[in-house]
Design a protein that fits this description.
There is one protein chain. This protein is of the alpha+beta class. The protein has one domain. It is about 25% helix and about 40% strand. The chain has two helices and seven strands; from the N terminus they run H-E-E-E-E-H-E-E-E. The strands form two sheets. The protein has a four-stranded antiparallel sheet with strand order 1-2-7-5, with helices on one face.
């Protein structure tokens, strides 16, 4: 029984953990450059790395949150592009690699406005 629980925990930890939150907005209340704003979108991804962020078990980086979460959600909502407001990720190189330890959980996030 303990082996089954351990296997379930390990398997679930290898699944990417992403979240996309949206809020539909009016063009009268929110301004955006280059078009009419339709929604504010926030994307977050938590990854899983091993051995001081050397081995990516579950990917979490700016490419994931901007392209796969924000842009994909904006297009699904009828937008043409995203005006990026903020983006950030856990640093993984240099002295920051020490924060990874044996198992690390890097986090990436981005916020933008979907524009039509």
């Amino acid at each position: 029984m303990k082996k089954a629980i351990f296997a379930a925990v390990v398997a679930s930890s290898l699944v990417a953990c992403t979240s996309v939150e949206t809020a539909v907005v009016s063009g009268n209340e929110v301004s955006a450059q280059g078009g009419e704003p339709i929604a504010v979108i926030q994307g977050t991804a938590i990854g899983l790395t091993a051995i001081f962020h050397v081995v990516d078990l579950v990917q979490s980086d700016l490419d994931t949150v901007v392209n796969k979460l924000l842009v994909a959600e904006a297009k699904a909502m009828g937008g043409n592009k995203v005006q990026l407001l903020a983006a950030g990720t856990t640093p993984r190189h240099g002295i920051f690699a020490l924060t990874g330890g044996i198992i690390g959980f890097p986090m990436s996030g981005a916020v933008g406005v979907a524009v039509k």
